[in-house]
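Good morning,

Attaching, inline, the backbone tokens for the sequence recovery test we're adding to the shared suite. The designed sequence is right after.
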């Protein structure tokens, strides 16, 4: 995949590799604390579905990532998908688990680059939709990419309330994989 910036070390968005595990675990922990995915879960996601696990690397250092599974399911409230139970590479939906940018690297557009590439990847893979759960405060963020708010989820992960978002990919023009202006 191509470098995205000039005048500073090039940013590359690429698939995660097994050697990225330590850095992805550190960023997951910095972003989500104890509610974040375990090392075992992150390792499984890289191993089982690398096409759905993208990292942003600047000058060779990973600064953020997005990971996911694919499934035929349309319902996200269960915990088992997080362990890739129900993952099927040819499933019609992609489900985002984590979008995470290292705290010192925020506000520089990395999540935008990751989201654009991820949405483009989902389209190239022929997926029907991208699904995710997020906190209420992130609903506006995902709407900028074309996600629709489906309402409150039944998930009680971490004892918190979660909102369900869905980006339809079929029969919609590819506005979602352009950066919001
Ligand atoms: C949310 C997160 C991924 C954003 O990463 P980032 O690289 O700093 O984001 P960008 O620099 O690409 O910002 C893109 C745009 O989204 C906006 N944005 C960032 N966080 C936002 C939020 N919580 N709500 C609404 N908009 C938000 C930015 O202001 C920016 O807008 P602009 O283009 O008008 O300047 C990052 O803050 C993070 O890792 N947070 C902790 C983990 C998390 O909450 N992940 C999402 C889980 S659902």
């Amino acid at each position: 995949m191509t470098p995205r910036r000039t005048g500073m070390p090039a940013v590359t968005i690429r698939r995660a590799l097994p050697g990225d595990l330590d850095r992805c675990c550190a960023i997951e922990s910095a972003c989500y604390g104890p509610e974040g995915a375990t090392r075992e879960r992150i390792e499984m996601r890289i191993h089982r579905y690398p096409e759905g696990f993208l990292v942003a690397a600047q000058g060779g250092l990973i600064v953020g990532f997005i990971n996911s599974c694919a499934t035929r399911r349309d319902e996200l409230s269960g915990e088992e998908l997080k362990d890739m139970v129900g993952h099927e590479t040819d499933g019609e939906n992609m489900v985002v688990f984590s979008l995470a940018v290292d705290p010192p690297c925020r506000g520089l557009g990395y999540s935008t680059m990751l989201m654009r590439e991820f949405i483009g990847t989902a389209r190239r893979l022929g997926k029907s939709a991208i699904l995710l759960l997020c906190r209420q405060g992130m609903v506006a963020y995902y709407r900028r990419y074309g996600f629709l708010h489906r309402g409150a989820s039944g998930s009680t992960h971490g004892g918190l309330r979660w909102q369900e978002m869905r980006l339809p990919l079929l029969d919609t023009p590819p506005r979602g994989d352009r950066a919001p202006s």
